[in-house]
Amino acid sequence: MTLPVFLSDAVTGVAPGSALVLDGDEGRHAATVKRIRVGEQIVLTDGVGTSATCTVTDAGRASLTLRVESTVYAARPDPLITVVQAIPKGDRGELAVEMLTEIDVDRIVPWAASRSVAVWRGERAAKSLAKWRSSARAAAKQARRSWLPEVTAPVTTDEVVALIAEADLAVVLHESAQVPLAALALGDLKRVLVVVGPEGGLSDEELAAFSEADVVRLGQSVLRSSTAGVAAVAALLTRTRRWS
Question: What is the reported pTM?
Answer without folding.
Answer: 0.92
